[in-house]
């Protein structure tokens, strides 16, 4: 698994569904210099854990908007599949009402470049290409700053849903550091004390906790 933290987020252009409309050549580049981005992968449309995450992000969009953060989802499904799922009522297993972008990665190149594809291609002894594993994305999440640099990543296995609270906490911590220049200790939350990144700062912090 590649560690992308500290590196530029891999570039892509792909079709996305945004608020019920197809958007061709969708790219995270549109947010450069303007917004932080939470770019996350989920395995498949019309499944079980995935809608709980997608809807949970939607339910917290006011908080992400208040922090000037773009939330973007992606799976290896087609944009037609995304559209069909988005058009399906929630009581019928759909995700109707989700209006942030869902990117289609049917070629699996985006998942591969972010190193979250849950399998790999290889050639067998007969020279034929095969795929080992699951041809879908793990539950990867990447926090990208306004300069396009990945500052945080987490990758869960397919059965394990993510914490939206933790995603918001990491956004808040990064923005606090960018604004104040102070670093955020273990379990830091908004409103709690941070510290200077010096020996004196650490000693002072630890002496009070």
From TrEMBL:
<dbReference type="GO" id="GO:0006979">
    <property type="term" value="P:response to oxidative stress"/>
</dbReference>
<comment type="similarity">
    <text>Belongs to the peroxiredoxin family. AhpC/Prx1 subfamily.</text>
</comment>
<keyword id="KW-0963">Cytoplasm</keyword>
<dbReference type="InterPro" id="IPR024706">
    <property type="entry name" value="Peroxiredoxin_AhpC-typ"/>
</dbReference>
<feature type="active site" description="Cysteine sulfenic acid (-SOH) intermediate; for peroxidase activity">
    <location>
        <position position="50"/>
    </location>
</feature>
<dbReference type="Pfam" id="PF10417">
    <property type="entry name" value="1-cysPrx_C"/>
</dbReference>
<dbReference type="InterPro" id="IPR019479">
    <property type="entry name" value="Peroxiredoxin_C"/>
</dbReference>
<keyword id="KW-1015">Disulfide bond</keyword>
<dbReference type="GO" id="GO:0045454">
    <property type="term" value="P:cell redox homeostasis"/>
</dbReference>
<dbReference type="GO" id="GO:0005829">
    <property type="term" value="C:cytosol"/>
</dbReference>
<keyword id="KW-0676">Redox-active center</keyword>
<keyword id="KW-0560">Oxidoreductase</keyword>
<dbReference type="InterPro" id="IPR036249">
    <property type="entry name" value="Thioredoxin-like_sf"/>
</dbReference>
<dbReference type="GO" id="GO:0042744">
    <property type="term" value="P:hydrogen peroxide catabolic process"/>
</dbReference>
<dbReference type="GO" id="GO:0033554">
    <property type="term" value="P:cellular response to stress"/>
</dbReference>
<dbReference type="InterPro" id="IPR000866">
    <property type="entry name" value="AhpC/TSA"/>
</dbReference>
<dbReference type="InterPro" id="IPR050217">
    <property type="entry name" value="Peroxiredoxin"/>
</dbReference>
<keyword id="KW-0575">Peroxidase</keyword>
<protein>
    <recommendedName>
        <fullName>Thioredoxin peroxidase</fullName>
    </recommendedName>
</protein>
<dbReference type="InterPro" id="IPR013766">
    <property type="entry name" value="Thioredoxin_domain"/>
</dbReference>
<dbReference type="Pfam" id="PF00578">
    <property type="entry name" value="AhpC-TSA"/>
</dbReference>
<dbReference type="GO" id="GO:0008379">
    <property type="term" value="F:thioredoxin peroxidase activity"/>
</dbReference>
<feature type="domain" description="Thioredoxin">
    <location>
        <begin position="3"/>
        <end position="176"/>
    </location>
</feature>
<comment type="function">
    <text>Thiol-specific peroxidase that catalyzes the reduction of hydrogen peroxide and organic hydroperoxides to water and alcohols, respectively. Plays a role in cell protection against oxidative stress by detoxifying peroxides.</text>
</comment>
């Amino acid at each position: 698994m590649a560690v992308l933290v500290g590196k530029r987020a891999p570039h892509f252009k792909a079709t996305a569904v945004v608020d019920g409309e197809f958007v061709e050549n969708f790219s995270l580049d549109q947010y450069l210099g303007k917004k932080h981005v939470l770019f996350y992968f989920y395995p498949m449309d019309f499944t079980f854990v995935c809608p709980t995450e997608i809807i949970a992000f939607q339910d917290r969009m006011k908080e992400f908007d208040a922090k000037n953060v773009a939330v973007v989802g992606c799976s290896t499904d087609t944009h037609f599949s995304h559209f069909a799922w988005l058009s399906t009522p929630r009581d019928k297993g759909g995700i109707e009402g989700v209006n942030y972008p869902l990117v289609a990665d049917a070629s699996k190149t985006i998942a591969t470049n972010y190193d979250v594809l849950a399998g790999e291609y290889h050639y067998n002894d007969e020279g034929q290409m095969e795929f080992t594993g699951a041809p879908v994305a793990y539950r990867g999440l990447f926090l990208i700053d306004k300069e396009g640099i990945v500052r945080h990543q987490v990758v869960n296995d397919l059965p394990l849903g993510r914490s939206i609270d933790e995603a918001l906490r990491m956004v808040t911590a990064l923005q606090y550091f960018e604004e104040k220049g102070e670093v955020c200790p273990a379990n830091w939350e908004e409103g709690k004390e941070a510290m200077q990144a010096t020996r004196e700062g650490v000693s002072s912090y630890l002496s009070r906790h």
